[in-house]
Amino acid sequence: MSPQLKSLSASETTVSYDSIERTPRGVQRIERVEKQMNSKYLSVLIVSVYLCSWAISLDRSTIRSYKPYATSHFNRHSMLSTLTIATTVISAVCKPFVAKFSDLTSRGMAYSVVLVLYVIGFIVAACSPTISAYVIGSVFIAIGESGINLLNTILVADMTPLKWRSAVLSLLMTPSLCTTWVSGIIVQNIIDANWRWGYGMFAIITPVAVIPAILIIFWIEHRLDKDDDTTRKPLRVGIRDLHTALLEIDALGLLLIGFAFSLILLPCSLYTYASGGWSNPSMIAMECVGGVLLITYIVYDIWFAPYPLLPRRVLLNKTFVFCAIVDFFHEMNSYMWVVYFSSYTMVVLNLSYRDWTYLSNTETVGYCAFSVLIGLLFRITRRYKIFQVGGTMIRDVGLGLLIHSAKQLNGPTLGFILAGNIIISFGDAADIMGTQIAGQACVPHKDMASTISILSLFSSIGGSVGQAIAAAIWNTHLPEKLTNYVGDPKKALRYFDEVSAIYKLPWGSHDRFACIKAYQDIYYVLFCIAIGINTVCIIGSMFLSNFYLGNEQNAVEGEENLPESGKWYITVLDFFKSPFK
Fold this sequence. Notes:
CATH class of the largest domain: Mainly Alpha
GO molecular function: transmembrane transporter activity
Domain Major facilitator superfamily (MFS) profile: 45-549
Distance between the termini: 20 Å
Structural class: mainly alpha
Oligomer: single chain
GO cellular component, one term: plasma membrane
InterPro entries: MFS, MFS_dom, MFS_trans_sf
CATH architecture of the largest domain: Up-down Bundle
Pfam families: MFS_1 (PF07690)
Shape: globular
CATH topology of the largest domain: Growth Hormone, Chain: A
CATH superfamily of the largest domain: MFS general substrate transporter like domains
């Protein structure tokens, strides 16, 4: 290995990556499939995964609009928040299970299972005669959708070298550029007919999109198995010996991490409904037990698990650890201000419903568009760190504009809010894409699927913590701010409970201006906390190794062909090698 490569990855190879335990069966199979994949099959596979991304994007942007109608149909609209909490937690904690299952069996088998759960969920929800059946269907949908999204990312990582990884992953985000705008038209037409059709259509659309990819994987595996059946032996052993199968899938570790994060995440959303909030004994008990289970999981997986979800070499991997830290605080930062941002802009800006909707979608659309640009920059320069560090710093500029807007005497102006959103979306794209590539590059292929799922889980936890902090500030301080500025406690309480009541107030009236000042005061605090949290992301991103994105599946296995020296951007990019080794 060349000295230059060693300087880039020395910290990642302190623990040998030569496998002591065998490579999981699913990883062996997909590696063989990748080697046998010709251009025809690869083209169909890419198109299928891309169409699947369209279907999932449309699913996400429309289903959330059907939920209020569905729960109201059963006269249980009050269950909407509980349902949202449950499905959010399930979506987060099921990913390690799906990742491990895909490693133990095969990518095609994992796709098939989550697709079946996805279709069952939509059929049950569409045909549900009771609220209980609807909830069960929603849970299956959450598992299936989360699993398909995860497997799309894993399959792209399996099939693409590092130099193309970011560009292809960014393409999976482009459907949101369209579905964000057309979903409203679709929802309106479906609601006018019957909300059940809104669920039923995805039981057809998504399978049609993803089945070609599944068939290609199974077909190539079948052809390979006709010549060599060695990859089937581990599965036969697993089926014959239940104990061995449970050890291989790390059943105890998965249960520990599933219960741990469920108990940690649930109180972040449920505390507002509990008597006494965070001081409620149930909330405290759930967090404590969740923390103990998380520590137990870490100890078990490092020292006792024969087939750990994340081996010790990954848990002690510097780049992986800092990817998890950056992802956690990035989502915490985002949810700190995003969760109530649409309400904030509805109150402080004089916009029509249409323009307000467009503004609410600005960050999402900007993130998806800039992700494509960032992916191409990664491909051209073969580096990511300079863009990630720069992106986290640029987020501070956007947050600074939002802080300034929150202190404007006559209320925020649209220009500052729009500019801040666009700048932040660029920083988000660079930061998130950077941790994705770094996390996948710093581990061997056999650990990649679990690594992707755990990083996603840490993101969910960070988002829940940020949402909980924002909700605490909002629910504690906004009522008193409204009372102080409005002057009438009864009016203030109504304005707190009904943001639409504020929106209907005449622009320029005393009460409207009073509400604007109250919202500005609260969001000034939220923006300031967010910019402070972003400092952790800036520092954490500096600790990531500056891997060269070449022709390998990852940066820690095999030899890599480094670029020719002397190119101007190599000198600049190498300056951003990890400075804290």
